[in-house]
Design brief:
53 residues; mainly alpha; 0% strand
Amino acid sequence: MIDEDDIKEKDLKDLNDICDECKTEHESVSQNLILTGFKICKSCRLSKTIFPI
């Protein structure tokens, strides 16, 4: 059976505000995670939009 504490702890690890691309900490990471589903900061999101390679 799944323990609720394990689920909550796992969810909190995802909301650590560290960008997957540049590995810097920024508050826009959690905002972009909610909006787009990707853990990237505002600057990485802009660069991916302009240069999608």
